[in-house]
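Bumping my old thread because nobody answered last time. Still need a sequence for this structure:
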């Protein structure tokens, strides 16, 4: 794992949260993207070498909508930048970590992603990210 790539924050009102983080960070978001397969719209802010990803649900049955309903708004996940996501998945499985999906998929911000189950990492949802080719 090379660095923290981003922190994902689940929000009820993406437009309001975008304005809040714009004021907080003193800069505009650099990207907004809708990921239909996950039922989410994302807004990214750069902060130093890392990013903040705001996550708003686009449908009530999406993972983000379910998360907010169960836990409320707040930090949803921590994402780590990895050089080779396939090798990292294999390594982590060997270490006994449980993955939500055994294969990486295409996520927002042109990344291949995979998630570790929070039960494997003391209640924290961990995302692995590798720049897609």
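Sorry it took so long. Here it is:
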């Amino acid at each position: 794992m090379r660095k923290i790539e981003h922190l994902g924050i689940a929000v009820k009102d993406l437009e309001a949260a975008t304005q809040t983080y714009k004021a907080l960070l003193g800069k505009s978001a650099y990207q907004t993207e809708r990921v239909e397969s996950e039922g989410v719209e994302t807004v990214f802010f750069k902060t130093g070498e890392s990013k903040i990803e705001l996550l708003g649900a686009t449908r009530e049955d999406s993972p983000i909508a379910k998360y907010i309903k169960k836990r409320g708004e707040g930090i949803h996940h921590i994402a780590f930048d990895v050089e080779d996501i396939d090798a990292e998945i294999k390594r982590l499985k060997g270490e006994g970590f449980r993955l939500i999906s055994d294969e990486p998929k295409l996520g927002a911000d042109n990344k291949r992603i995979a998630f570790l189950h929070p039960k494997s990492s003391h209640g924290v949802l961990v995302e692995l990210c590798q720049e897609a080719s």
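The chain has one domain: 3-131. Let me know if any region looks off to you.
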